[in-house]
Design goal:
- This protein is mainly beta and 288 residues long.
- Helices cover 11% and strands 41% of the residues.
- The chain is elongated.
- Mean pLDDT is 88; it is low at 1-6.
Length: 288
């Protein structure tokens, strides 16, 4: 016989069934959440693609609860999502927004292979910059907990949150009239060992005039420092192969013979980022 909803036993049975079903759903969701967390803790690389102007926030597994997950290893492979034809140079910016990682038990590593290798460790007792800039278009971010918490006061509240973005450095294709090309990160001093290509394209039957309102490149070198043939930082006209150093283009104008003009900038290994004197260039172009 079916129970009526108005029969006391019928109401009790329905409520009991609902309670059991709700508990099953909660337990199932909790199990799925736990599985997702443990999947992230397996150390299997997880790819993160960055587009221009995009911010991505990354957190360690267990961030919301502050749980210390024993033996958890998470690896993110962060890379720029760029068009193959993009001549611009970009770098990856990582900002540590929140961090509580006792060095005895947890740490975060920013790893970069390339011309210059970087292995930067972050944890509470390590003094590291809160902002990290890559030199390449790809970095690895590795979070790791030890197999057991070794912190005397416990590891509750273990967490780290990072904001990752793509930052324009220099170069690219320029096909809009009345534009500006600048040295890497201008008006800040340019970074060392950086190469940039500036490809300026005007409509057919038009030409290009490039005028450098500011042009001052450091003439110091770590190696041979001869004029126009040594290790000096330089700006080069690829059409004529003319090479400009120091202040040689300050206030001067270069005019193209055709509608296409390409320039190349190369800074040497001498580090001038923190110098008080401003080094770099800002050159405007127009079609005529």
């Amino acid at each position: 016989m079916l129970f009526s909803m108005f029969h006391p036993l019928g109401v009790a049975s329905i409520l009991s069934f609902i309670g059991v079903s709700f508990t099953m759903v909660v337990n199932r969701d909790a199990a799925l959440d736990r599985k997702r967390i443990m999947d992230k803790c397996s150390g299997t690389p997880q790819e993160v693609y960055l587009n221009a102007g995009q911010d991505v926030v990354l957190q360690n597994p267990g961030f919301e609860s502050g749980e210390f997950i024993e033996g958890c290893t998470t690896l993110y492979e962060v890379m720029m999502d760029r068009d193959d034809q993009d001549l611009g140079q970009w770098r990856i910016k990582v900002v540590m927004e929140e961090m509580n990682l006792p060095c005895s038990s947890s740490s975060l590593w920013l790893l970069e292979d390339g011309e210059r290798t970087h292995n930067v460790q972050y944890c509470n007792e390590k003094k590291a910059e809160t902002v990290f800039y890559s030199h390449e278009h790809m970095i690895d971010i590795k979070f790791k907990n030890k197999a057991k918490c070794l912190e005397e006061g416990g590891c509750a509240g273990t967490k780290v949150e990072m904001r990752i973005s793509a930052e324009y450095v220099c170069g690219g294709r320029f096909d809009q009239d009345n534009g500006v090309i600048t040295s890497p990160l201008y008006p800040a001093n340019y970074i060392n060992s950086e190469a940039c290509i500036y490809d300026i394209v005007a409509p057919k039957k038009k030409r290009i005039a490039l005028t450098c309102e500011y042009f001052d490149l450091s003439t110091k070198c770590d190696g041979h420092c001869g004029d126009h043939n040594g290790d000096r930082t330089y700006f080069q006209d690829i059409t004529t192969f003319e090479r400009y150093e120091g202040k040689e283009l300050q206030g001067k104008t270069i005019k193209s013979k055709k509608n296409h003009h390409t320039f190349y900038f190369l800074s040497n290994s001498n580090d001038i980022e923190d110098k008080k004197r401003q080094y770099g260039f800002s050159c405007s172009y127009k079609f005529f």
